[in-house]
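PT: before anyone asks, these are the final sequences, not the draft ones from last week. 692 residues across everything. Please model them as a single complex and drop the result in this thread when it's through.
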Amino acid sequence: MKLTVPYLGRIDIFLNAMARKIGPEFVFPPRTSSRTLLLGTKYSPESACLPFKFILGNFIEALEKGADTIAMITDRGPCRVGMYDVVMQQILRDLGFQFEWVVMDDTRILGDYLLRFNRERKKRGASFFESLQAIRFSWKKVKLCESIERKAQKTRPLEVKRGETTRVLTDSLRWIDEASSFRELALVDQQCTNEFNRIEKDPSRNPPKILITGEAYMVINPHANHDIERRLGEMGVEVTRTVWFSSQITHALHLDLFNPRSKRKAIEASQPYLKHNLGGECNASIGYPILYQKDGYEGAIQLLPFGCMLEAVAKNILVRVSQEHDLPILTFALSENLSETMIDTRLSAFVDLLQKRREKKRDR
Amino acid sequence: MTTRIGIPRALLFYRYFPFWEAFFQTLNFEVVVSRPSHRGLIEEGFKFADDDTCIPMKMAFAHTINIKEQIDFLFLPRLLSLDGKTCACPRLAGLPEMLKYSIPNLPTILDPYVDERHRNSTLFQSFSEMALTLGKKSKGIKQAFQEGEKAYFHSKKRMEKGEKNPELFGKAIEKDPLNNKERLGKKVAVVGHPYCLYDPYFNFDLLKILQQSQVFVYTQEMIPKEVIDLEIRGFEKDVYWDSGREILGASLHYLHTTQIDGLIYLTCFSCGVDSMIEPLVKHRIEEDGKILYLCLMIDEHTGPTGLLTRVEAFLETLERKKSGRRMT
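LR: through. Structure below.
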């Protein structure tokens, strides 16, 4: 079995680490390129949303590379991600691919997954303790990756030589992926910290802080949002994003009760504006800017894939949030026809606006 | 003066209006409905509406603006789940907030939250809570609710028979002398969201065009819910949107019973539900290969001529296919 999954943040590092210990074999789609999007757009229904096109393109490329099983998470509405599996299967089979599709949703009980996991484990001859260790190890890797990414977000606006942080980040992620034991991982951690400390920084700068919120797939995947984090960082802005691989997992497993910036808390914060939880990231997109403003964030960017139903609702409500909380919010509709220049222009205009606001506040 | 309740002639109006009207009238409210869509009315609404939503949504904005001066309360129910399994399109669920934050000087919105998945937000409970806040007695509410249900089932029965409800569709299709199976040769099913099918301004009076071209029109309303559920059960996936479920179930039913010659899928640009359902319907029909299929997607720039040309070509092909002539 050669399994493939859609990209979701650092899921590749997580699954690679697990696969090396206990299996199964993973075939990751090649890095998302313009060909991926072209393929996805070509075979997608006309008004499908952008994540659909990306994921379909990824799957086509993964199947070309030799994958024979596709696993994907689904849900029971109202977002259309729950219908992805039927439509995608139909499209891929029409294209002549042979594969098996594993649907993961909450209608099948957790026990079913555990049984399957156990079966897989026995087939590979790994003991139960080993499997638990493998999961713990993978989880630790992901956590390390994310802490490094956070470090990069903080360092990038301060770097003197442009592009150095990005280089260190890429190296660090590769090292983490290559580490094969807890001890090696600890060493890699040390090495990454050293590398980050070695970057030449200008501590006199006081970068504005911007929050990136919106639809999960768009926020978490740099290939989908045109690397908006790096772009903003190089404009001298400290950014953070709301969706992380680990936060999605902890939210799904109800393990984020005590995190003050969890999705759960964001949904609570959106209550005054939208009483009912509509599902997806809609309520969280509204709540996160309110929460993060308390941390000194001066602006927020909402990423919405063109045609997204839930984020369009959030967009309308964010207008009011922006007025009432005196927080500039830029809504960025992403589609397959975006030029790099256009993105840069809009982002730098937004950053200029934040700078002007700062000057105004200082004068007062 | 009685309290005036405003209902925009958009979205869920096209299905549940008989219920709402009977409910409010039994409770001695005056029901104000916005005027049928026309160009001026719609364009006024487009100024306020968000550009990332679909046209029916923008039309709801327009109709709200049309009546907002004449009413005391704006009635916009959130029908999130009516049978405890399905859910509504999220745009519909978020509509009251979208309107509230986009249109200035809006009257108080009544938005009963109907979600049969939770025990304390059933249809009756939500509606009676809403009526209680308006100062009505619970006994009267119960009676009004029954009246509403009666009116709704009555209109549903009529729709199933293929009659057009004059309260919903205005004078335009009040009587259908043409809709007579014996006289008409071609049978075409038209599926789509009720607000796409029954707003003559939106679809350039497609149903009338078809009727005038001697076509007997079937809609998904003519299929009882049980049949749709049965069809969906046979499908590989349990579709969770109530509207999508209906459209897919009806299309599959028409396909399996082979009582029609062609199927028209009417959809609007950037509809999330249709973007996933339409490929499924299309695939099934093309696989079967017995009936003709046409997908009409309508956006702000669609003109009546373009639509008419496509429909005429569709009917022409249908004719040729029926008479057994080969296309040259």
